[in-house]
UniProtKB/TrEMBL annotation:
Family per similarity comment: Belongs to the bacterial ribosomal protein bL31 family. Type B subfamily.
One Pfam family per UniProt: Ribosomal_L31
One GO CC annotation: ribosome
Name this polypeptide is given: Large ribosomal subunit protein bL31B
Domain of life: Bacteria
Entry-linked Gene3D superfamilies: Ribosomal protein L31
NCBIfam families given in the database record: L31, PRK01678.1
Protein keywords: Ribonucleoprotein, Ribosomal protein
InterPro entries: Ribosomal_bL28/bL31-like_sf, Ribosomal_bL31, Ribosomal_bL31_B, Ribosomal_bL31_sf
Subunit comment: Part of the 50S ribosomal subunit.
Length: 81
């Protein structure tokens, strides 16, 4: 493997801003902001708007909107009669 061509792969905390959820993993991303983790060490923190903890698809709160009865129109047109 060539020297000095690979990015720095380090522990990083990803924090969900919409909920109080954070997880520690390894990443090549870095940040000037740090946070003290449960183990007492400080790690760079990357702030995210949405993670699997707050996304409606993963939380089971996703709703399907039927605007103007499009599903019913489709079923009438192409459904079994």
């Amino acid at each position: 493997m060539k020297e000095n061509i690979h990015p720095n792969y380090q522990p990083v905390v990803f924090q969900d801003l919409s909920s109080d959820f954070a997880f520690l993993t390894r990443s090549t991303m870095s940040s000037k902001e740090t946070v003290k983790w449960e183990d007492g060490n400080e790690y760079p923190v990357i702030k995210l708007d949405i993670t699997s903890h707050s996304h409606p698809f993963y939380t089971g709160k996703q709703k399907t909107l039927d605007v103007g009865g499009r599903v019913d129109k489709f079923r009438q047109r192409y459904g079994k009669k």
